[in-house]
């Protein structure tokens, strides 16, 4: 299997210096729309999983307790610098989304943007997100997904062998993944490329 945790750590270490050039402008509106679905309240404890260089931070309310994780040390370093530049108090840690070092029912909101299509086993990431969320906690997801109405065909699966190596899986379906992890989907909106990218809000 090409898509492994070790491979993701290596390639995103290489991508880190140019990641913002590619991702900032493309995903600013999708990020804002996805985070706008969350019912925010002052003092919430929030976890950004697989947060990369911290590009979600500008779209979060300031009166939150924010924890940020990513698999890649180079990404976490850039996220920490972004938080400091914006004068945001953010705890930034290197951590695997499939094995979160947090207690059960610890967070009010978990944000997973552009990670479920990258993880080798997204089911493990969602299981961990469910575990660390409080009852009635909110999961905010934004990513690219295969339509829920049909599975990927042969041509898409063949293309996925290439895309999953260099960037991302293009065959995963959002609704089955979230529901199998125990989440109830409250909102589901297309945010980019005619619905290839979707923003979902789910409740534990």
TrEMBL record:
This is Methyltransferase domain-containing protein. GO terms for molecular function: S-adenosylmethionine-dependent methyltransferase activity. SUPFAM superfamilies: S-adenosyl-L-methionine-dependent methyltransferases (SSF53335). Keywords: Methyltransferase, Transferase. It holds the Pfam family Methyltransf_11. GO terms for biological process: methylation. Residues 48-140 form the Methyltransferase type domain. It comes from Halomonas qinghailakensis. The keyword DNA damage does not apply.
């Amino acid at each position: 299997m090409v898509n492994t945790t070790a491979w993701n750590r290596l390639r995103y270490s290489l991508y880190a210096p140019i990641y913002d050039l590619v991702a900032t402008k493309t995903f600013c509106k999708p990020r804002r729309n996805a985070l706008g679905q969350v019912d925010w309240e002052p003092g919430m404890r929030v976890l950004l999983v697989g947060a990369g260089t911290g590009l979600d931070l500008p779209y979060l309310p300031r009166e939150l307790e924010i924890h940020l994780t990513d698999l890649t040390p180079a990404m976490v370093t850039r996220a920490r610098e972004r938080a400091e530049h914006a004068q945001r108090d953010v705890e930034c840690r290197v951590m695997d989304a499939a094995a979160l070092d947090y207690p059960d029912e610890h967070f009010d909101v978990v944000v997973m943007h552009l990670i479920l299509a990258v993880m080798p086993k997204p089911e493990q990431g969602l299981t961990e997100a469910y575990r660390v969320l409080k009852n009635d906690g909110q999961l905010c997801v934004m990513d690219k997904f295969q339509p829920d109405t049909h599975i990927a065909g042969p041509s898409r699966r063949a293309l996925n062998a290439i895309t999953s190596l260099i960037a991302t899986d293009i065959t995963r379906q959002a609704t089955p993944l979230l529901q199998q992890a125990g989440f109830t989907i409250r909102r589901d909106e297309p945010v980019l490329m005619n619905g290839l990218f979707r923003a979902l809000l789910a409740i534990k």
